[in-house]
Amino acid sequence: MESIALTEAVFYILISVAEPNHGYGIMQNAEKLSGGRVRLAAGTLYGALNSLVEKQWIQALPSEVHSRKKEYVITELGKAAVAAEIRRLKELLDNGQAVAGGWNND
Amino acid sequence: MIRNEFRFWAAWDYELEELWLNHMAEQGWHLQKLTMGTFFTFEKGEPGAYQYRLEMLDKNKGEQYLSFMEEAGIEKIGGYLWWAYFRKKNDGTPFELFSDVKSRINHLQRIKKLMDTLKLLLTVVLSLDYLLYFIDIMTGHFHGAVGMVTMLPCVLICLWIWNGSKKLSYQIECLEQEQMIHE
Q1: What's the pLDDT band for A105 if we cut at 50, 70, 90?
Q2: Does the interface ipTM go beyond 0.90?
Q3: DSSP state of B13
Q4: Residue from B14, B71, B104, B107 to probe the interface with A (highest A Cβ count within 10 Å)
Q5: Does A47 sit within 8 Å of B103, measured CB to CB?
Q6: pLDDT on residue B58
Q7: What is the least distance, in Å, from the CA of B119 to any CA of chain A?
């Protein structure tokens, strides 16, 4: 598994499609989970979704007849990527706190 | 109430164009129609009702992208060549098309690639042209000299595009520097 850091956008997209979700739903979820901090812009999101489909980390679900909204869901590869990222983040967190824990909090 | 404006914006100055459109919108003039990329038709409405953004699309961003945009409440009110003029109802939050450095770089590189192709084409054609004019003069025909003068505006346009491409390079470089620290 690669150990290259995922962008915040990709990370939040992946966890937002644990259950099938569409573009706008992904945007809203990322904003909600991050307390308004992560706001996925449409252009960025569209590009990221296409890249993730290409990487097979997510898959596009066939759209229903009356719905123009395309839905996406995470794949096994995508789940593995999220797990690896969580491990990486935990490493950063543990190392950071070990050092910064000794600093005075203002 | 309708208002028409005539403006010529270079591709590399699209962010200035966005500033202008958003400034107009803040005053209640909302871009409604675009003709030939230079005639802007504005409609009077509530100040700040809409926010505008421009994007140069590519082959990957077709109908699917536009319906994706519509889902997010973003409508394309017009376009010119590869450019799309998007607007969104102001909900109090800033309207951006790109939220990370990487996608901003990609957009600028897309524009730069087109400018570079144009720049190369023009340079090659003009060089051949001037070579022929030069040969003309050397073989005693002086209409080559006339040609050299009448083609000067084209040379200036070519230089202008070279300069524009450089501006884009500089912007991309700045963003790449930022990428070292932030997403």
Answers
A1: low
A2: no
A3: G
A4: B71
A5: yes
A6: 87
A7: 27
Cβ neighbours of residue A81 closer than 8 Å, sequence gap 6 or more: A1, A6, A14, A57
Report the chain B residue with the minimal C-alpha distance to residue A46.
B65
**Alpha-carbon separation of residue B174 from A7, A15, A22, B70, B170 (angstroms):** 19, 31, 34, 32, 6
**pLDDT tens digits, one per residue of B131-173:** 999 898 888 888 888 888 889 999 999 999 999 999 999 999 9
> In whole angstroms, what is the distance from residue A30 CA to residue A24 CA?
10
Query: What is the nearest CA distance from A78 to chain B, expressed in angstroms?
Result: 21
Nearest to A41 among B61, B98, B183 (CB): B98
- Residue A27, chain B, CB below 8 Å: the answer is yes
Average pLDDT over every residue of A24-43? 93
Three-class SS state of A80: helix
Q: What CA–CA distance (Å, rounded) separates A72 from A21?
A: 5
Mean local confidence (pLDDT), B112-123:
96
- Read off the amino acid at residue B2: I
Residue B36 CA to residue B18 CA, distance in Å, equals 17
Q: Does A22 touch chain B (CB under 8 A)?
A: yes
Q: Which residue of B has its CA nearest to A44?
A: B98
Query: Looking at CA atoms only, how far is residue A80 from chain B in angstroms?
Result: 22
Give the pLDDT of residue A2: 53
Nearest residue to A16 (alpha-carbon basis) of A34, A1, A2, A4: A34
Of B59, B26, B158, B103, whose CA–CA distance to A48 is shortest? B103
